[in-house]
Amino acid sequence: MQPDDETIKADQIPEEDWEASPNDETLLNEEELAQVEGDDDLTPDFTDEEAFPSFQRGRQAAKLMDATQIYLSEIGFSPLLSAEEEVYYAKRALKGDAASRKKMIESNLRLVVKIARRYLNRGLPLLDLIEEGNLGLMKSVEKFDPDRGFRFSTYATWWIRQTIERAIMNQTRTIRLPIHVVKELNVYLRAARQLTQKLDHEPSAEEIAEMVDKPIEDVEKLLGLNDKVASVDTPIGYDENKSLLDTIADENSMNPAELLTDENLRTHIESLLDKLTENQQQVIARRFGLRGFEKATLEDVGKEINLTRERVRQIQVEALKTLRGLLERVGLTQEDLF
């Protein structure tokens, strides 16, 4: 039986919404991965009032529990892949084989659940965390290169964590504060952390104001937003080493997305295509919506220029390899650009 097409396609997610691909330094080490993979019991304790505070609040909570248990029961029957199977299916998936792609996704759904459980009490219910993690899993299948020598679960864990943490950020009210308020909170909270370490106690508003050389009234006003201040400092990583505050961009750095709004720079970037072969220019322009073309899939590009989907993919890989160095010279990566 042929596999059904997935209902959510990872390539429908805007590229700018994703972080750059992980490198060897950002991937989990063996000890960290063992902590993720070592827990075989997928079913959370729904009677834990701290983890599930709404469990005792009526039928809606019970329905959520039932839906979660059903999902966990269903994915429990998907066998994990061996290292050899990962390489085999990954290579076929890169060539566009839908069945292999689906096999890799289904075989790693349990990994998503194990990771998602570590983000409970961060503002999203378990099923929502799993759904977001599944998007990261799908993305990792598209980008995984088995020739780099590490296991797929190592690579996928990075993407799963990224999508879950992004979803938690988007659900947090603090992100909707005016940017100048967020930046000011940034200053005060970092000062508070430094003072906490120095003084060995939680600093007062007066101590913070003195350190940042601001009127105490201004500091008290922002720190009075207790729920917002707490949420901006709330851990979002399952190891509790990363908070929403850590995700606030450096106000002195320039965002690549903002750079792209400059028409002159975009014209310059498009001019880089002249350094490619004719076929490479045609593929890149159509795939990523440059030179007046609409973004198109590999298959659609192939139909437009009379090439197979696989040949289009090969040309794209070659072209991006050539462009990578040129893009980095202007402070961009291919993920930022496309």
From TrEMBL:
UniProt keywords, alphabetically: Cytoplasm, DNA-binding, Sigma factor, Transcription, Transcription regulation
DNA-binding region: 298-317
Region annotation (Sigma-70 factor domain-4) ranges: 272-325
Coiled-coil regions listed in the entry: none
Annotated region (Sigma-70 factor domain-1), positions in chain: 66-99
RNA polymerase sigma-70 domain boundaries: 128-141, 297-323
Top-level taxon in the UniProt lineage: Bacteria
UniProt KW Membrane keyword: no
Positions of the UniProt region annotated as Sigma-70 factor domain-2: 104-174
Alphabetized SUPFAM superfamilies for the sequence: Sigma2 domain of RNA polymerase sigma factors, Sigma3 and sigma4 domains of RNA polymerase sigma factors
CDD domains reported for this sequence: Sigma70_r4
Gene3D superfamilies cross-referenced by the UniProt entry: RNA Polymerase Primary Sigma Factor, Winged helix-like DNA-binding domain superfamily/Winged helix DNA-binding domain
Motif, Interaction with polymerase core subunit RpoC: chain positions: 128-131
Positions of the UniProt region annotated as Disordered: 1-29
Assembly: Interacts with the RNA polymerase core enzyme.
Name used for this protein in its record: RNA polymerase sigma factor RpoS
Source species taxonomy: Bacteria, Pseudomonadati, Pseudomonadota, Gammaproteobacteria, Legionellales
